[in-house]
Amino acid sequence: MSQSPVTSLAPDTKDPNRWKALAFIAIAQLMVVLDATIVNIALPSAQEDLGISEGNKQWVITAYALAFGGLLLFGGRISDLWGRKRTFVTGLIGFAAASALGGAAANEAMMLGARALQGVFGALLAPAALSLLAVMFTEAKERAKAFGIYGAIAGGGGAVGLILGGFLTEYLNWRWTFFVNIPFAIVAAAGAYFVIREPAEGRNRSSLDIPGVILSTLGLVALVYGFTRAESDGWSDAVTVTMFVASVVLLAAFIITEAKVKAPLLPLRVLTERNRGGVYLSLGLAIIAMFGLFLFLTYYLQIVKGFSPVKTGFAFLPMIVGMIVGSTQIGTRLMTRVAPRLLMAPGFLLAAVGMLLLTQLEVDTSYAGLILPAQLMLGLGMGTAFMPAMSLATHGVEPRDAGVASAMVNTSQQVGGAIGTALLNTIAASATTAYITDHAASATTPAAQKLLAAQSMVEGYTAAIWWAVGILVVASAIAAVLINTGADSGTPVASGDGAEDEIKIPVVAH
């Protein structure tokens, strides 16, 4: 296929259009992140309109998560093989078409098919976007700014989705939560086609590792589905257990295969470098905590406090503001001066303190007195940690591995989100049931029973939030122990001469 005339960029040349390119990459990333939460708010309306059963409603979310999470590594490898710009534009066009199909859905099957297609094209788009940044921004201060913007969008976009989803559902129609993606995608695709110039040496033309594609996709799908199934059917359910066992076997076989094949889908050198491994692990854990929180706060504000969808969306604004400030002001300004772990470890700890405040939730808790400051701390902490994490995830990789290294970031986020929703929701449900059992005898009037229902929900949320606090503390510890590279030296992507040996990264002891 022919490339547009501005596709290639000679090595070591600063791309004059790189900041324009960042704007279009940011639009695309915002669209993908928005989609993870915007549909949640529209789901009750869509379920009623399309006659989706209570048992099948989770598939509107799960179909997207399975396709997206399962195909991310494949999408990252395709972008290395096919070219990031071409993969990026193809992903955008496909995502727009799938969104149009979802918005026009006339029945359950059409809706689920559209969501799965969104996941497929999202898996092409997301790693291509991050890897384009990795190969276009190579100067330390510029890289810090670019990843600051990207990190703020990656962290705060989900909360923006709650606001936009509330507006569209309340004032227009649930279908607009799909149609809204189309203008995003068209603008980003047109801009990317004419503006983005990809470094010429960044391709990996090795043959595709088909066994690796099959094993990784099936392994990740089994893992995501296992956690999704655990949420609805319990951890001891036969299918849940089978999915987890299958996932372990398939992913173990995948790692063995990658160690032996000549051109692996996921070169183990991407994982075994301690800084990148530390980023993937700590970021995945942090996302577990964040996704659980989005879920609980949305239910708490709407069901317990009686907020409308729009008001609920706006209630998340302090977290978005905190993330933007943490990412673009704290992370960006300090990344070229201090080691990444000195931003990530304290960032995750500050988020844990914000989460700790939310363990004090009661039925009559003041939004301004507790929830707002907790969200600000969470946002500041996450934004500060996300920014160096996004940058470090592709730090030191050869250009030919940039796509698959980027895919690993998205995979850790996607799998973390699935685990967070299932794990924390299950903990909350158990605590809620236990509270009702212990206090049911004393609730003898309708008013007392209504209060008990609200109190039991809050009890469940706070029990799960305690777990989220612990998970964030572990994420902080992992970042402090594993990540040992110095401040961004301006050499984030190795020059790459086709050699297969371990990538050398400047490491500064602290």
From TrEMBL:
The chain crosses the membrane at residues 21-43, 58-76, 88-106, 112-135, 147-168, 174-196, 208-227, 239-257, 278-301, 313-330, 342-361, 367-390, 464-483. Residues 21-488 form the Major facilitator superfamily (MFS) profile domain. Its main location: membrane. It is a multi-pass membrane protein. Gene3D superfamilies: MFS general substrate transporter like domains, Multidrug resistance protein D. The keyword Disulfide bond does not apply. It is found in: Cell membrane. Keywords: Antibiotic resistance, Cell membrane, Membrane, Transmembrane, Transmembrane helix, Transport. SUPFAM superfamilies: MFS general substrate transporter. This is MFS transporter. It comes from Streptomyces lasiicapitis. The lineage of its organism: Bacteria, Bacillati, Actinomycetota, Actinomycetes, Kitasatosporales.
